[in-house]
What we know:
By secondary structure, the protein is of the alpha+beta class. The protein is 12% helix and 24% strand.
Amino acid sequence: xTGFLHxxxxxxxxxxxxxxxxxTSYRFGTGAAEHLFCRHCGVKSFYQPRSHPEAWSVxxxxxxxxxxxxxxxxxxxxxxQAKANLDARD
Length: 90
């Protein structure tokens, strides 16, 4: 519902050029994921997902230029099983 279209980017391939001082974060549930929001407008452009602790999840809808993506569904209501299915493919 929030319109987040995930692009998983390894930490070493991600650089936040500007705006770090405008970010605020929160954690809930297990505390493994760090959700980052713009403290001015509330947009979540990227965050640290618990499903990929070695990467950021970037919201494709927040990029200046569109990117071509292959979209795969992930059942967040049944997170543990969805993550196990994802890991089985690797």
